[in-house]
Amino acid sequence: MGLLQDLQNHILIADGAMGTLLYSFGIDRCFDELNVSKPEEIERIHSAYLDAGATVIQTNTYGANRIKLARYGLEDDIKIINQKGIELAKRALQKAENKGYVIGTIGGIRSFQKSAFTLSDIAENFREQLHVLLSENVDGIILETYYDLEELKTVLQIARKETDLPIITNVSLHEQGVFQNGTRLADGLKMLEELGADIVGLNCRLGPYHMLQSLEEVPLFEHAFLSAFPNGSLPRYENGRLVYESDEHYFYEAALQFRKQGVRLLGGCCGTAPKHIRAMAEAVSNLPPVTEKEVKERNVPIHVLPMKESQETPLPDIAKNRRSVIVELDPPKTLGLEKFLTGAKALKKAGIDAITLADNSLATPRISNVACANIVKSRFQLRPLVHLTCRDRNLIGIQSHLMGLHTLGLHDILAVTGDPSKIGDFPGATSVYDLSSFDLISLIKQFNEGLSYSGKSLGQKTNFTVAAAFNPNVRHLDRAVQRLEKKISCGADYFITQPLYSEKLIEEVYEATKHLNVPIYLGIMPLISSRNAEFIHNEVPGIKLSDSIREQMQKAGNDKEKGKREGLAIAKSLIDAAFDLFNGIYLITPFLHYEMTVELTEYIHEKEKAKRERKISHV
C-alpha cells in the first residue's frame, strides 16, 4: 500500500522540525551538511519522531540545493548530501517498529528578494536536487515553505512531469488566509491541485491558531488531500537566540481541530519536537478522517478605496509631452534648513517641475528627506520627488515609510538600492537590503493595488509614480539597458540617470534607449573646481571625465568663482548635446550651490523659448 492509498482511510502523522531542533541543541551551521558530518545526530532525530508516532518522515534536505549550499561553499556536494539524507531516513525507518514513508524534501528559494533568482535559475536548481532524490527511490516528494505561489507552480510542474510519486505542496503565508500577491489560500491550493499536487496545505510561519483559521475557508478537494505542519509558537529572543515555547497538550487539542478541517497529513514545523508529534498522534489515533466539512464563508477583503486622483500631471507624462526640468537639492548634513529652503524657493521661482531629495546619499546621515519634502511642498507648493533606498530600512520599515509618504500626499518616488554603508560616515553600520531596487519597485506598485507585501489589504490604493535609477557610465551599455527593461517589467514609470560628462555618451545613451516607451531624465551635474573634477574622475566608480574637461577645470586654478563658471560652461554644452534628444533634464546641485542649478534651469527655459519662437517664425 502506498502513501495516497493510506490517506484514503487514515490520518497520517508526519514528523516535526529538524532545523530548529538542531538549533536548540546548540548547532548553528548548514543543517543539511550534517547528513555527512554528523549522521548519527540526524538519524537519532528521525528515530525520535518515529518513536513518537510519525509514519511519514522527511529527509534532512530542505536546503540541499546548489543555491543554498553555495552560501557555505558546499555547492559541489549536492549529490552526497541528498543521498546521505535519504539513507539516514531510511535507516531510521527500518529500525522502527511501525512501517512508514520517507519523503524527499525540497524547500523554497524565494524570500523577500524575488528578483535575486529568476524562475529559470530556480527551475535549473530544482531539477538538479529532484533528480538526486528520485534516483534514491523515495516514497514521495514534499515541496515546503513556499511563500511565492509563482515559484511553487513552476517547480510543481517540473516535478509532476518527472515522477508519478505522490507530491506534497506546503505553502507558507505571511498573513492568515492569503498569499503575498493577494491570492486567497483556497484559490491557490486549488491551482496546485489542478497542476497535479496530490496533497496541498500549509507549513511554517503560522502556529495552530492562525493555520486553523486559514483552513476554515478551504474546502475538501476532489483530487488532493489536505496537510498542515504548524509552527510550535511565536519565537522569543533570549540571550541572542530564538526560543520556541508551546505546550504539547495544546497540540493535542489542535490536532482534533485540524481533523475537523479535513487535514489528513499532520506534522509540525519550526519549534515543534517529538513531544508535539506524540501529542497529535495520540489525539487522532483510531479517528477516521472527515469526508465533509462546512466551509466558512470567505472573509470579505477590507474594502479597498480607489486611489485619490492627484491634481498634478505625473512627471513621466510631463516629460513625454514637453520640456521638463527636475533638480536635486540634498537635505543638509547638519541641523538647520535656512540655505536649503532658500535654494528650494529660488528653484521654484526658476520654474522647475520637481525638486528631488536624496535619501542619505553616499551613506551619510542627513535631515530626513521626507521632512524636507513635506516642508517645501507646504511652504512653496514645490513638488517633491523623494528618493527611497533599500539600505536603511528592513521590509517592515519600508512599508511603514511608504504608508507615511502616502498619508503626507507625497506620491513621487525614486526607488534605489542605496550606497553601501561602508563608504559613508559610519562604515560599521548595517546595510539592510531586505529588498533590491527591483523588488522595491514591485512593492510600490503592489501598494498601488491596495496590497501590502504580505498580500493584506491596505484599505486604500496608493498612487505612487515610480522613477528608477540608470547609470550609463558603464563599460557595457547594452547590459545597463537590459536592467532598465527589467525595471520596466517590475513597474518603473521613468528613469533618472547618473550625471554624464560626455557628449558622445549622451548620443550613445539615446541610441541605446530610444526603443523604450518610458521617458529618461538625463543627469547633468556642474563641476565646481579642478579638485572636484579630479575626485569624480578618480574616485567615483564608473565616471570618467575627458582630458579636455579636466584641462578646462584646471585652467580655473584655485579661483572658486572661475571654477564655477567653467563648470557651468561645461554643463551648458552637455545640455546643448542632450536638448534635442531628451525632453527630461535632471540637474544635480553640487554642495547646495543652488545658484548654479538655478542658472542652468533658466538656460534650459531660454533654449526652449528660442526653439518655440523659431518654429513660429518658420510657420
From TrEMBL:
Q: Which domain of life is it from?
A: Bacteria
Q: Which cofactor does it need?
A: FAD; Zn(2+)
Q: Which UniProt keywords apply?
A: FAD, Flavoprotein, Metal-binding, Methyltransferase, Oxidoreductase, Transferase, Zinc
**PROSITE patterns, alphabetized:** HCY
Pathway listed for it is: One-carbon metabolism; tetrahydrofolate interconversion
CDD domains per record? MTHFR
Provide the binding site for Zn(2+): 204, 269-270
Domain (Hcy-binding) ranges: 1-284
Picking any one GO biological process from the record gives: methionine metabolic process
This entry's Gene Ontology molecular function terms read: metal ion binding; methylenetetrahydrofolate reductase [NAD(P)H] activity; methyltransferase activity
Q: Which PANTHER family match?
A: SLR1189 PROTEIN (PTHR11103:SF18)
What protein name applies here?
A: Bifunctional homocysteine S-methyltransferase/methylenetetrahydrofolate reductase
Q: Which organism is it from?
A: Aeribacillus pallidus
